């Protein structure tokens, strides 16, 4: 009898305990909505790269879930290289650049492969990689590539991919860097769920092209923080969408619209000035004042130019109480991004704690 | 596509040869599917136990109308998009992440190509173009259209018709001659070859269909006599049945033949005007793919490659089918029906291969012209009508073109796709210059397929939905043998639902 009662008692306390925990959990889960981070910005500014980076800081399961298989990365590397080559070759007449007969033959093999992208695989790429490499290193292509007056659209990672072409010409395993560098147009809205120290996060990536932006509204609800990415490097380029609008103006206007939007009244903004590495290189060649007319500082000073651009963005903010953090980043630099993300994470959790 | 894949497809198309209406509306998925699922059945037993499965929040449901798919279909984006079932589910999936506009665009450009009416004759100035269009006209007239076929034959070669079953070759040459005359184009020797093929197939079809569906034919044809082209509700099968009767007088209703004859006689004086009739019957044809209906039409899509790649098969089954036509009687044995459906596919493929199918643009104009044709058998002002027809066709092409442009390409549209700027400008230019061709969206479609393949398709592939579909495909391969037994039910029920539809 004694045993029985004790047992019974044990069970009941256990039962009560577990019930209590269950209840707490339920309460917690109902109060603890995932922290929703939204990546915004115009096309090709590096949203998806930051997305990839943030995913790569998470645990193995998350990484596995949101990282594409190797063959997908490989295919897109080939695709990027072929697209870049054909773009450069096709734009050549506009720069009054001609190729020799031999070079034209090589060009033809590349263009043939480009016209049959469905069949593109390692064997085909291997067969043309020498031609691509030759063309890329030819003085004609180099002069097109280095022409300060760029009238065509080219991925920023082209140079990286081209310099690694020997590695890609044989069957290879894509590195993390390859994966980060490869350019894929994001379509639609991509969400990733993960937990950092038991706090659920939801990271949302979107396509940045103008035609993708009206989809954004679908994910504007309950945003904890907006990670706005702009490519600081793009002060001299025009939009891929219409080949006319300045990317800088577009990004600035977009930021103005978003930062003052009613959707995000309570959400702090994190502003990424991305691609600083390219920017530092570019200001040596292309003076900022040439494209941003109201800049009258030192064209070659990184400090002055970057501060000027930063201020341009900050002056668009109408609400003076708005929290906007800014970071100068290179999305490829895993360590730097990790530091930035941790600080964002920290301040977000602080905010959440305050609310609670 | 694997053999297995084909087998599966054949089997489903077998199972429902007599229920064109019951098998409709693949794309009008949700409501109709839900309705159907209560009365009808899933593809096989196991699936039916799991009618509502939530994967990635997507409710996947199969009905008998769905086209089976294999793992290969799923793993190749091109095949996946071409299969209406997998495409439908893919659209559902991508809707969740708001990238479905690309898949929809892909689908609509595909439909655009199918619906596109190739405009023939005077307006086209250059010789090669003329030849091409003639090919399309003659091939489609001879192979697809019920009314235009007799139109070409009747004036000169009614006797050959009588013998057509035995001497299809003779008939073919007759056809070719007539085609030449009718089209005012005497130097299209190349086209003759095309016509040959088409006619061959056509005749095979007729033979088979006749035998399979004699009983049905009587009914259908009687219904259709008044308005030869009011096939709007009766698709492919009936359409062909009409043909059969027209050509093989010995077999069936002479009434039909005479009606059609009058129609065709009326319009034939104005020689280049195959248009009215062709057009009219085009409506009937276009019904099939538009409603995404009968299983045959779906297999058509899927078998394109097969039909095209094996031209030799055209001749062999022909002999068979001629024999079959003579030997097999009214009972529609499943084997011959499979033959016929197979050939229907070939037939359509062939006719569509010289130039993309000539098909009318929107449903409204289908109904419109359905009426018009019935009027046409009385008045004599063919030339006017013909010009109107051309204008109509151009208009409808333009309309469907603009429809896609407005919906997916205009910079402020809801569903704007992520298209390269250059491609967009190209299309816009063409539209501005009124150069509406069948290939106007070709490049953009390809580009969008790349976009899908590079982005959303990858995510789709790693989704649970996709894994579930892979299981389905696997299961389907295993349970393939089960299909014949479960066939019985679908047949009965689909007939029922056909009645409901009517």
From TrEMBL, chain A:
A GO cellular-component term linked to this record: cytoplasm
Gene Ontology MF, one: metal ion binding
PROSITE patterns assigned: G_ALPHA
Nucleotide-binding among keywords: yes
Chain residues that bind GTP: 44-49, 156-157, 180-186, 205-209, 274-277, 331
Name of the protein this chain belongs to: Uncharacterized protein
Residues given in the record as Mg(2+) binding sites: 48, 186
GO biological process, one term: adenylate cyclase-modulating G protein-coupled receptor signaling pathway
CDD domains reported in the protein's UniProt record: G-alpha (cd00066)
Keyword Nucleus tagged: no
Record key words, sorted: GTP-binding, Magnesium, Metal-binding, Nucleotide-binding, Transducer
UniProtKB/TrEMBL annotation, chain B:
Region (Disordered): 1-52, 123-386
Protein name as catalogued: RGS domain-containing protein
Skewed-composition ranges (Polar residues): 9-22, 264-280, 287-299, 307-318, 354-372
Biased composition (Low complexity): 123-168, 175-263, 321-353
Classification via Pfam families: RGS
SMART domains on file: RGS
Superkingdom as given in the UniProt entry: Eukaryota
Ranges for domain RGS: 76-113, 376-470
């Amino acid at each position: 009898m004694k045993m029985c009662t004790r047992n019974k008692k044990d069970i009941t306390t256990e039962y009560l305990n577990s019930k209590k925990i269950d209840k707490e959990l339920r309460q917690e889960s109902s109060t603890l909505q995932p922290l929703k981070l939204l990546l915004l910005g115009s096309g090709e500014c590096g949203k998806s790269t930051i997305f990839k980076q943030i995913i790569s800081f998470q645990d193995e399961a998350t990484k596995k879930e949101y990282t594409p298989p190797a063959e997908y990365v490989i295919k897109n590397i080939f695709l990027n290289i072929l697209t870049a080559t054909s773009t450069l070759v096709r734009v050549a007449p506009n720069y009054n650049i001609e190729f020799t007969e031999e070079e034209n033959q090589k060009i033809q093999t590349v263009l043939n492969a480009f016209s049959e992208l469905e069949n593109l695989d390692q064997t085909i790429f291997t067969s043309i990689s020498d031609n691509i490499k030759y063309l890329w290193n030819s003085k004609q292509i180099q002069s097109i590539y280095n022409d300060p007056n760029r009238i065509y659209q080219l991925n920023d990672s082209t140079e990286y991919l081209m310099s690694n072409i020997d590695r890609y010409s044989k069957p290879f395993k894509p590195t993390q860097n390859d994966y980060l560098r490869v350019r894929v147009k994001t379509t639609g809205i991509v969400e990733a769920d993960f937990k950092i120290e038991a706090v659920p996060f939801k990271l949302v990536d979107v396509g940045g092209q103008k035609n993708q932006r009206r989809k954004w509204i679908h994910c504007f609800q309950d945003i904890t923080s907006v990670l706005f990415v702009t490519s600081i490097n793009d002060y001299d380029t025009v939009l891929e969408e219409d080949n006319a609008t300045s990317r800088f103006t577009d990004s600035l206007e977009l930021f103005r619209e978003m930062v003052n939007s009613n959707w995000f009244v309570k959400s702090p903004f994190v502003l990424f000035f991305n691609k600083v590495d390219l920017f530092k290189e570019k200001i040596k060649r292309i003076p900022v004042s040439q494209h941003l007319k109201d800049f009258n500082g030192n064209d070659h000073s990184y400090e002055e130019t970057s501060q000027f651009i930063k201020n341009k963005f900050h002056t668009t903010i109408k609400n003076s109480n708005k929290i906007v953090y800014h970071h100068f980043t290179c999305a490829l630099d895993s360590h730097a991004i990790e530091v930035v993300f941790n600080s964002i994470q920290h301040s977000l959790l602080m905010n959440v704690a305050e609310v609670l | 596509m694997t053999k297995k894949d084909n087998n599966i497809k054949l089997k489903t198309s077998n199972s429902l040869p007599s229920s064109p209406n019951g098998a409709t509306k693949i794309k009008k998925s949700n409501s109709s599917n839900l309705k159907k699922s209560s009365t009808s059945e899933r593809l096989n037993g196991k699936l039916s136990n799991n009618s509502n499965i939530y994967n990635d929040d997507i409710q996947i449901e199969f009905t008998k109308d769905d086209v089976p798919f294999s793992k290969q279909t799923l793993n190749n984006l091109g095949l996946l998009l071409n299969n209406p079932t997998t495409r439908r589910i893919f659209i559902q999936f991508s809707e969740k992440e708001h990238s479905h506009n690309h898949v929809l665009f892909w689908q609509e450009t595909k439909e655009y190509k199918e619906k596109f009416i190739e405009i023939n004759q005077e307006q086209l100035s250059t010789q090669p173009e003329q030849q091409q269009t003639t090919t399309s006209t003659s091939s489609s007239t001879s192979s697809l259209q019920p009314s235009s076929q007799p139109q070409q034959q009747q004036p000169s070669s009614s006797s050959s018709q009588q013998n057509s079953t035995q001497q299809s070759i003779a008939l073919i040459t007759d056809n070719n001659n007539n085609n030449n005359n009718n089209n005012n184009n005497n130097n299209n020797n190349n086209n003759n070859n095309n016509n040959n093929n088409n006619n061959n197939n056509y005749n095979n079809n007729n033979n088979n269909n006749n035998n399979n569906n004699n009983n049905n034919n009587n009914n259908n044809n009687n219904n259709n006599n008044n308005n030869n082209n009011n096939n709007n509700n009766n698709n492919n099968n009936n359409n062909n049945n009409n043909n059969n009767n027209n050509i093989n007088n010995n077999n069936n209703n002479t009434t039909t033949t005479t009606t059609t004859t009058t129609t065709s006689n009326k319009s034939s004086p104005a020689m280049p005007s195959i248009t009215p009739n062709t057009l009219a019957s085009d409506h009937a044809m276009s019904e099939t793919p538009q409603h995404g209906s009968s299983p045959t039409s779906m297999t058509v899509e899927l078998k394109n490659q097969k039909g095209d790649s094996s031209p030799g098969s055209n001749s062999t089954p022909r002999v068979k089918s001629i024999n079959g036509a003579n030997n097999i009687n009214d009972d529609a044995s499943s084997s011959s029906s499979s033959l016929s459906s197979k050939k229907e596919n070939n037939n359509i493929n062939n006719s569509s291969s010289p130039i993309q199918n000539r098909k009318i643009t929107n449903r409204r104009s289908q109904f419109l012209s359905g009426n018009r044709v019935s009027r046409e058998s009385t008045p004599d002002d063919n030339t006017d009508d013909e010009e109107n027809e051309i204008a109509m066709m151009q208009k409808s092409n333009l309309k469907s073109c603009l429809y896609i442009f407005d919906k997916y390409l205009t910079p402020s549209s809801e569903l704007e796709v992520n298209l390269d700027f250059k491609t967009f400008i190209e299309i816009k230019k063409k539209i501005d210059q009124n150069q509406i061709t069948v290939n106007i969206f070709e490049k953009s479609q390809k580009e969008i397929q790349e976009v899908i393949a590079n982005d959303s398709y990858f995510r789709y592939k790693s989704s649970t939905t996709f894994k579930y579909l892979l299981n389905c495909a696997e299961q389907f391969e295993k349970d393939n043998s089960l299909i014949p037994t479960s066939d019985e039910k679908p047949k009965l029920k689909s007939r029922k639902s056909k009645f409901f539809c009517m």
